[in-house]
Amino acid sequence: MASLSADSDSVVPPKVLEDLKQLLWGQGLKDEVFSRWTQGFVSSEDEPTALVQLEGGPCAVIVPVQAFVLSNILFTNDGVNEKWRETKETDIGEILHTSLVQILQQTSSSNFTLFYTQQNNKDSKNDSHENGVKKITENGESSSKRRKFGHEKFHMNLRCQHCHSLEDLSSALKSKLSSFQGEMGVLLYLYSVILTKGLEQLKNEMEDPNEPLIDGVHGHGSQSLINLLLTGKAVSHVFDNEKDVAGLKLQGISKQSTIGFLTLLEHLSYCKVGSNFKNPALPIWVLGSETHLSILFSQDKVLVAPESKATVATRIFESFDPEGNGFISSILLGDVMTTLGLVSELAYVEIMKKKLDMEGLGVIVLTNFMQEFFPEELGLKEPVHFTVYHYNGMKRSNPDNKVRYQEGDGVIQELRGLPLVTTSTPIKTCLQTKWPTLDLQWKNDGTPSLN
Question: I want to staple 399 with a disulfide (CB 3.0 to 4.6 A). Which of 76, 172, 295, 445 is the partner?
C-alpha cells in the first residue's frame, strides 16, 4: 500500500484513496448510496445537544459520536451534570470537538489523519466557530434542500492533514470543526477515523476484509464499522474476547467499553452480546435494530454497578452453554468451577457431579448450580428504579418529527423463578437482553422507536 506523505498537509495518494474506497464502499459505489452519507454533524433545533440524521445509513457514525457527546454532557469529573439539558448553544461546538477527538484517540496513540476538501478548508477560515454551528443547525435538517453530491467530485477534492500528537490533533480539528459540521462532515470524519486507524490494521481486525464497511445496496454500516467507532477496533463480533470455532479464531470485544451496545438481534438469536459491551463504564448504550441505531442513556450509575457474584456466575456458566439450553454437560462442571475460582479438585468435582446430577443424566442445570454455590445471592431484592432517556436521530422516528430525547421511568424487578408479564415492545425486548426483568413507562409521547 502506498504511504502517506510526512508533510502536515497533502494530497491523498491515489493508491491509498482507492484502497480506502474499496474497504469502505466495495466495488461500484453508487451516487444514490453515497448521497445518503452527505451530511454534517448537525444539531436538532428542538434538542441542541442531539444530532440529526437526515437519511438512512450514516447512523453507524452519527450515533457513536452522539453517544460520546452524551458522555461529555451527562458526567463531569465531579459526578453528574444536573443541568445537562441546559447546555449553552455556544458550548455545543466544544463538546462535539472533544467527542470527535476522543473517538480518534481510541484508534491511535500518536499519529492522526484529518480529511478535508479544498472548498471546506477555505470556508472554515471564513466562518466563525459559533456562526458555523448556528447556520448548519438552522438549515441543515431539511433533506429536501440539500445539494446532491457525486462521489467522484468529492474524492477528487480530498486533502489530508497529518498530526503527530494529541495536541496537534485537537488544534487541527478545532480549526476544521466547521467542515465536519458542514454538508460532507460525516464522511470527512469517517475517512479520518479509517486512515488514522490504518488500512492494514483495519483489515487485520475485520473477519472478512473483502466485505465492505458500508453496504452497497442500502448504505448501512457494518458491525465492524460500529465497533470501530465505539471501541477503536474494527472487530466483527460483539461477544467478549475471542472464540475458537473449528480452528478459526473469531475476534470480539477485548475489554470493557466506555459506551455499551445492545441489539434486538440477540433476542432473535443471531448473536450474543458479551459483558464488555453490556456492562460499559458509563450508562450509555447504543441500541441496534435490524436496520438502525439509537441510544438509551441515564445518569444513574446503578445501571453500570459491578456485577454481583450471581451475575458473574450465571454469565460464566452460560459461556459453557452456547446454545442457551439452561444446562451444561456434567463433563464441563470442573471447567466452570475453575473459571469461577471455586474449589475444583477432582475428587470434589466428582462429588458435586453426583449431587447436582442425581438422576445420572449427564447434565448440570443452571438453577441447581446456582442454588448450590450461590444461595445467598438468590434472595429477592428491592426493585431498582431509575430515569432513562432515548435518542433517535431520524426526524420521522420522533413524535411531531422533532428530534428530542424521550424520557422514561425504568424498574428492574428481582423475580427469580417467576415470569415477568408486561407489554412487549421492540425497545423493551432489546433492553431485556441485558435486564430480563426490566419494565419501562415512557412519558408524554409514547414508546420510542428503534427504527
Answer: 445
SS (H, E, C) 298-344: CCCHHHHCCCCHHHHHHHHHHHCCCCCCCEEEHHHHHHHHHHCCCCC
Within 11-126, where are the H helices?
A: 14-25, 31-36, 59-74, 89-107, 118-126
Active site residue 151: no
How many CB atoms sit inside 10 A of residue 438's CB? 18
Per-run averaged pLDDT (10 residues), the chain, 451 residues: 52 93 94 94 96 96 98 91 90 96 95 86 44 40 56 92 95 96 96 97 94 94 98 96 87 96 94 93 97 97 85 86 87 95 94 94 94 76 86 96 96 62 85 90 89 94
- Residue of 97, 162, 237, 292 with catalytic role: 292
Catalytic residue list contains 163? no
C-alpha distances out from residue 278 to 118, 308, 319, 396, Å:
42, 14, 15, 28
Helices of type H across 127-237: 129-139, 151-156, 166-175, 177-181, 185-197, 199-205, 223-231
Query: Which residue, chain included where needed, has cell 428481582?
Result: 414
The closest of 257, 190, 170 to 37, measured between CA atoms, is 190
- Provide the whole-model pTM: 0.85
HSE (side-chain half, CA atoms, 13 Å) at 300: 14
- Give Cβ neighbours of residue 245 (< 8 Å, ≥ 6 apart): none
- Between the alpha carbon of residue 119 and those of residues 123, 160, 195, 319, 324, the distances in Å are 6, 13, 21, 53, 55
> Measured between alpha carbons, how far is residue 212 from residues 34, 206, 221 in Å?
13, 10, 9
Distances (CA, A) of 333 to 314, 325, 347, 362: 13, 15, 12, 10
Whole-angstrom distance between the N-terminal and C-terminal Cα of the chain? 39
Provide the sign of the torsion angle of the four alpha carbons 440, 442, 447, 450, taken in this order: negative
β-partners of residue 113 are 162
Tell me the C-alpha distance between 94 and 418, whole Å: 48
Per DSSP, 253 falls in state B
